[in-house]
Amino acid sequence: MSGKETKISxxxxxxxxxxxxxxxxxxxxxxxFRKHGTKNWYHIDTGIKGLSDRQFMTSNGSGQTVYLEIxxxxxxxxxxxxxxxxxCVKRNIPYFVARSVDxxxxxxxxxxxxxVKYYG
Length: 120
Prior knowledge:
Layout: H1 3-18, E1 23-25, E2 30-34, E3 41-45, E4 54-57, E5 65-70, H2 79-90, E6 95-98, H3 101-110
Helix pairs in contact: 1-3
């Protein structure tokens, strides 16, 4: 996720929390890390490639997970992200792409979960 997408994701996360929607980031951690005080490097690769940037559960008592991909305006999903979306859609799992808090508000409204309006 780029710097701008990180800011959008943070704002959307705060908006979801304001609407009493527990949510969390689902990033993939990749890289090489050295244990403090040693010369040994460790390669780390966690998460599922293509997984959305945020998730939350519906408030209707079903416990259904909703996946939310965050994108900068004008940017598109990668092929692996599109593949993850297709897998969700095949299984009737809600998946959305949001480029702003306004988008997140529309998504919550469509799911019947909007409590606090956003006037951005």
